[in-house]
């Protein structure tokens, strides 16, 4: 690894296209401070090709960029700028394979049902590419997320819309009071390295080892259980309560992240809501492969094989349920898609902030917004949403103009589980006892379980906790802001963590800092009371609250969580700088192909690269890098203030135009600054040239728009071809080359 | 003053009647421990007669019992049992005068419009008797209120009804966010004894001294203002919000205690609600003497002088208002009496707990309970009700069976004003500045005011604050319970108090105690989170919160605040033991007169006398007194458990019967105890006799019921006559006399 290198990732779709325009600008500026930006391919196509590289001819072989970066995370000087990439679903993977095959790469298809050795080999290779495969490799540290000053300032001056809150709103969070993970959680801290055994003991005394789990000293191990009976009773009560009180019923789960337990929870909601249907057609559904955990959509899908008349009968039975049940919140009222259609449509961390921003309302069958009972069966985190709803009823909607900010320091390193733990989550097949037994045969924890219960264990290592405490203290010091550790007295897991936090806090100078430990309700209330008074509060949380709060607060503060600065200070000392979410990237690519207009906003890249420069400057004692960073931040602020972000409309400034303005403002700032005279001289001419040629460059960037841009690959882009498309201004290219 | 005397007050109505039966029992038992119980007359009639004693013939002269007890409060060994008395309204005063005159007392009528010197003299004498005239004289200490163990235990075993709370309730508290006392409060602590000047400075620079105020060093002085414009705008907005959201509108003020400011606030509510009527008939109303501060009742009352047609027109105009306004909460839906009829009908500290106990509902025009917007313009204390409402929506109604208790230590001594301060409350007659100027001419505080604003100052002396801190610590120690000082960071007054609390806490050993200082919202939330988990928390509060919380929590815990033990540990070392509220006493007297059944429950007296004995025992080192106290508490518990409290139904056990059972259980406990053998011997025979003759005595007490009891005086009772009525069991009287 070169001494002063920033690794910039080549990912997929819009961010990858934008990179073709933006990286040359970053590179040109960085060169003046003796910094090199290297592009590393972690795109879906790149990952596929590298996985089969040994089977491809030498001119088609591709390096494994992800493996390279993964190893780099152990380097204390690692500096990685990570753009959003595709977490491939199966359809996406198949599309990418097809594209690569059509481009002449001789790679196998994905074998849905692998039989031969070759197929099994292919399946194994593809399984490492599917889903969220990049973050676990690169996120070798805890999480530091905040709203950058420029973004916060822009939001204050240009507040997004916020739905008003009525004091008479009937919306609320509904959750289990008993029988859930929260109320059954047990937790222990291991005193030595050892392998524990997760066991099921049947009513007949038989012991089944479900899993052997190697643990290290200091590791926190939790176990907990959701009672199936109590869960179903809760759903029934909640539905009846909603019906009686004439309020819309809306289920919010996290079936993506909790991919074992939450689909089961979701399935119970479906079978309780449509109880009459499932009672009548249960066996039939079983025969034709209906899986309620996949939602009502699965019913509609699978009954297509049945005779028309029977289909009609079932559909009628489904419709009849709506007579006795409360109205369901809709995902797409035009298409009649409800909250219970697909488990992954309504994801709590995104859906609850949207509901809160929308006056506490969800969308109804009539296409209008209505008060809703937001049902989140597990009470662990659901309570913070009820607290927030009560707060909004009392104090009105948050005001982006005046509100403070709640940055987050999240315990994420080494897969801090809290949520997740799929390999240790089990749906009980019989009544009995689930227990965890240590190496000496002592029972560490146990739960009485019944058939259908959802039992899970999860583990959190000590080193990341220690690092997390340090990061919390560092952030409190750097931003001179109170920091609150969100640790709930009523959670066994949190009480184990609390002991560690109290111990590790002693390792730091916290003199003059305001560091507190609070329960979730106290912490969110404290943060909200401060936020409406314009005050900031750092939330130092576990992994789930990291996920939830870095949506909740940013969506209130900034209207989106995509504009957050997301840093992973790695355990080994390096840093990864993540840029915003890429949710809408496919639409962006489509617009580029059809009209040669890329609406992708590279704001996240601007912000991440500034921090990347800054940290590199500090580590290498490179003063110029620090000045580059400061001026880049100022340029970003100016770009926001002057509204030079990409327009959605073809013919107006797009991604490329915004890059030009960033370069111009950045050069102007560098030329004008007095901190580093050499750098000012270096950029004087560039600033002058870009300023003088603004009109010409913008004209060149605009005139290419309106006709299709020829892209020969969607997943496996041709960088040369894309560079031609993304850098169409000769004037701009020449001026930049003159640096 | 005798060395071992308890002063027992003769008051009014039912408590006075009950005294004729109960005091002989207390006296007989006390005698055995060398304690004398002396009866001191502080009844309304007694106070009138003593005020005119110099004008009455010698055989009609009456001692001034209140003055005597007032002086006694300075005695470190003062021991006073204070029963509920009449805080006379003008109609009550007039009725008492009339009764006394008819009994041959030559006292003057109350001169509504005093002209002659004699009339002026009479008015001056009566003014000291009107209203709340007793408590300010006797309450020479702070307040210690708690639910006695026997009462709390009884409530847990026999829970009162509690309305369920719906998660979809739309009820809420509504209050000003700006322009009220809370947001304008200023506060200073005096550094020396001096007289300050409250001044109004007009727009023309003229200075009017409204009041000279002598203050002592360490005294806290506050000033604050309600903006009339903002108050009226708030009412209008609140009404429109209620109308739009179809929720009942309910005004909750404290016109009795805040007798200057709150009637004005109430008046604005009336003139805003009936805006169209007051705009049209304002001048006419002025002419005929309508005072909106007296409520809509005043309109109906005064227009009676107008021609029928005009009356009808006005009534129609009033009815028309209901078309454009939200539904009003009713005080008496049968009679069509709304919340705006009379200012003293709905008193926040009683009405809000009732609403919260009743599922957050108030009574509507249809005689049914509905969700309501509870309007309390001043936000200072209103916020705790919103917090409570949110809490109930989230957690459901409180459960008397499992809930903990919240005793109170209240800052009350030396008229700690906070509320009150009638002589320093002004309705502004013009725009200008209200300021307080110290002896050197420095402006301590000032407010810009507008015509119609309500400005007030209020004072709190240092010695009571110091004593209050001590009492808080003592109670925390004695009951081993966390104590929370409710001091709001956002209130200027509370910040002055906070400094003193922090200083005075250092005077005490608080090692091992859990003593906290919290804002109101934090404190009530903390207390509620604990209470639903069965945990107790002492609230250490100012004078208003004392008043509010000793209704709110007791009504949730016990169903009534009348069963609370209320102690005033006096600044000079003595103690006053107050017994429960006498709100429904007039109805009780009526039932006695008609059916010779007194349903008054002397539970408060049982509890107060037990503490009175206990404290006397400690002070005089009288062991027997302490044992008497313990056994009395046990007897009270047994009486509750065996359901020997008075029935409301004639023919069943009434007040007298419950006194018998108290005596029997008390004697049994004394005979059975082993702590003091002498006392056991002394009471052995009594216990035996009472137990043996239970049936006979109850029969004698029951057979007198069902026919009218002849009472020759309502206000000025004839104690001999009343004693005959109240002690009708010869058997019981003889057994008691044999002691």
Structural class based on helices, strands and sheet pairing of chain A: alpha/beta
- Supply Rg of chain A: 27 Å
Total number of strands of chain A = 24
Regarding quaternary structure, what we see is homodimer
Q: Looking across the biggest beta sheet of chain A, what order are the strands in?
A: 2-1-3-24-23-4-15-22-20-21
Biggest β-sheet description of chain A: 10 strands, mixed
Report mean pLDDT of chain A, rounded to a whole number. 94
Amount of helix of chain A = 40-55%
Low-confidence segments of chain A, given as residue ranges, are: none
The most extensive interface between chains reads: A-B, 17 and 17 residues
Shape of chain A: globular
Measured between the Cα atoms of the first and last residue of chain A, the distance is 26 Å
Task: Output the number of helix runs of chain A.
Answer: 27
Strand content of chain A: 15-25%
Descriptive overview:
The structure is a homodimer of 739-residue chains. Chain A is of the alpha/beta class. Among the domains of chain A are: 5-140 and 576-737, no CATH class; 172-181 and 227-395, no CATH class. In chain A, 46% of the residues lie in helices and 16% in strands. Chain A has 27 helices and 24 strands. In chain A, the strands form 5 sheets. The first copy, chain A, has a 10-stranded mixed sheet with strand order 2-1-3-24-23-4-15-22-20-21, with helices on both faces. In chain A, a hairpin with a 5-residue loop joins strand 23 and strand 24 (575-578). The longest helix of chain A has 19 residues, at 13-31. At the A-B interface, helix 15 of A face helix 15 of B. Chains A, B: Substrate binds at residues 132-139. Chains A, B: Pfam families: IDH. Chains A, B: Its cofactor is Mg(2+); Mn(2+). Chains A, B: Its EC number is 1.1.1.42.
């Amino acid at each position: 690894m070169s001494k002063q290198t920033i690794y910039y990732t080549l990912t997929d779709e819009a961010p990858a296209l934008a990179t073709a325009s933006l990286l040359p600008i970053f590179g040109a500026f960085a060169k003046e401070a003796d910094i090199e930006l290297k592009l590393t391919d972690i795109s879906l196509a790149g990952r596929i090709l590298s996985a089969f590289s040994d089977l491809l001819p030498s001119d088609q072989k591709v390096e494994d960029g992800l493996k390279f970066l993964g190893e780099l995370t152990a380097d204390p000087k690692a500096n990685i700028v990570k753009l959003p990439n595709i977490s491939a679903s199966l359809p996406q993977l198949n599309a990418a394979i097809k594209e690569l095959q059509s481009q002449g790469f001789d790679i196998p298809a994905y074998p849905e049902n692998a039989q031969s050795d070759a197929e099994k080999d292919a399946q194994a290779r593809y399984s490492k590419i599917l889903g969220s495969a990049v973050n676990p490799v690169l996120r070798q540290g805890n999480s530091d997320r905040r709203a950058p000053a420029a973004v916060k300032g822009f939001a204050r001056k240009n507040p997004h819309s916020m739905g008003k809150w009525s004091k008479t709103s009937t919306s609320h969070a509904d959750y289990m009071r008993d029988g859930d993970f929260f109320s059954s959680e047990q937790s222990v801290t291991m005193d030595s390295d050892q392998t524990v055994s997760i066991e099921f003991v049947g009513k007949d005394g038989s012991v089944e080892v479900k899993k052997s789990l190697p643990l290290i000293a200091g590791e926190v191990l939790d176990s907990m259980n959701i009672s199936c009976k109590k869960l179903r009773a809760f759903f029934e009560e909640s539905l009846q309560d909603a019906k009686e009180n004439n309020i819309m019923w809306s289920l919010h789960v996290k079936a993506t992240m909790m991919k074992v337990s939450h689909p089961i929870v979701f399935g119970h909601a479906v079978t309780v809501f449509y109880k009459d249907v499932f009672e009548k057609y249960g066996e039939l559904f079983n025969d034709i492969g209906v899986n309620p955990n996949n939602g009502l959509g699965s019913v509609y899908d699978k009954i297509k094989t049945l005779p028309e008349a029977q289909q009609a009968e079932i559909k009628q039975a489904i419709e009849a349920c709506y007579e006795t049940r409360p109205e369901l919140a809709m995902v797409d009222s035009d298409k009649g898609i409800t909250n219970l259609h697909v488990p992954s449509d309504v994801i709590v961390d995104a859906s609850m902030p949207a509901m809160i921003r929308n006056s506490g309302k969800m969308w109804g069958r009539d296409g209008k917004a209505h008060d809703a009972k937001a049902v989140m069966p597990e009470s662990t985190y659901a309570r913070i949403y009820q607290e927030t709803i009560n707060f909004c009823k009392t104090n009105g909607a948050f005001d982006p103009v005046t509100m403070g900010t709640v940055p987050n320091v999240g315990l994420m390193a080494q897969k801090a589980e809290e949520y997740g733990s799929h390999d240790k989550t089990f749906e009980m097949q019989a009544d009995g006892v689930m227990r965890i037994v240590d190496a000496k045969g002592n029972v560490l924890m146990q739960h009485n379980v019944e058939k259908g219960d959802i039992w899970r264990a999860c583990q959190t290592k000590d080193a990341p906790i220690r690092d997390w405490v340090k990061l919390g203290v560092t952030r409190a010091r750097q931003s001179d802001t109170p920091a609150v550790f969100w640790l709930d007295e009523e959670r066994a897991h949190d009480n184990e963590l609390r002991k560690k936090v109290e111990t590790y806090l002693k390792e730091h100078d916290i003199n003059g800092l305001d560091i507190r430990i609070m329960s979730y309700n106290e912490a969110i209330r404290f943060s909200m009371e401060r936020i409406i008074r314009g005050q900031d509060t750092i939330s130092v949380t576990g992994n789930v609250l990291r996920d939830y709060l870095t949506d909740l607060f940013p969506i209130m503060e900034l209207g989106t969580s995509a504009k957050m600065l997301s840093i992973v200070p790695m355990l080994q000392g390096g840093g990864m700088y993540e840029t915003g979410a890429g949710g809408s990237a496919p639409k962006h690519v489509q617009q580029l192909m059809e009209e040669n207009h890329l609406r992708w906003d590279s704001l996240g890249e601007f912000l991440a690269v500034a921090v990347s420069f800054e940290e590199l400057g500090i580590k290498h004692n490179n003063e110029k890098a620090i000045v580059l960073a400061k001026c880049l931040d100022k340029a970003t602020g100016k770009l926001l203030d002057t509204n030079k972000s990409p327009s959605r409309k073809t013919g107006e400034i797009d991604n490329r135009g915004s890059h030009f303005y960033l370069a111009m403002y950045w050069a102007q700032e560098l030329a004008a600054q007095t901190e580093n005279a050499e750098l000012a001289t270096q950029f004087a001419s560039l600033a002058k040239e870009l300023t003088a040629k603004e009109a010409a460059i913008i004209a060149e960037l605009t005139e290419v728009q309106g006709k299709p841009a020829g892209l020969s690959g969607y997943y496996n882009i041709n960088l040369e071809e894309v560079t031609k498309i993304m850098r169409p201004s000769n004037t701009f290219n020449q001026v930049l080359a003159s640096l």
